[in-house]
Amino acid sequence: MDPSGIRFYREKKGHRQADLATHLGTNEPRMSRIETGQEIPTADEVDKLVVALGVPPPYLFSEHILSEIANRSRRNVA
């Protein structure tokens, strides 16, 4: 994942990592791991990031990561 998109838009919007973690309903360590590419966010977390940062998912994640998120979401529905 190219995590620079999350950090770039978070900083552009003036959000602290802790603020974004609260918006996602997670903790700051997990938010840090998502932002640095160590963890892949859930589809729900992606939706919340899109709202919080005001940009579409491709601005935040590579196509490969978006595909993985969609696959996980489909498996959780089935």
Gyration radius, in Å: 12 Å
Helix/strand-derived category reads mainly alpha
Number of helices: 5
**Helix and strand sequence:** HHHHH
The portion of residues assigned to helices is 55-70%
Describe the structure.
There is one protein chain. The chain has 78 residues and is an all-alpha fold. Helix content is 67%, strand content 0%. Helix 2 (17-24) packs across helix 3 (28-35). The protein is globular. The termini are far apart. The relative contact order is 0.18. The mean pLDDT is 85.
Present the secondary structure layout:
Elements: H1 4-13, H2 17-24, H3 28-35, H4 43-53, H5 63-77
Helix pairs in contact: 2-3
List its traits.
about 80 residues, mainly alpha, 5 helices, about 65% helix
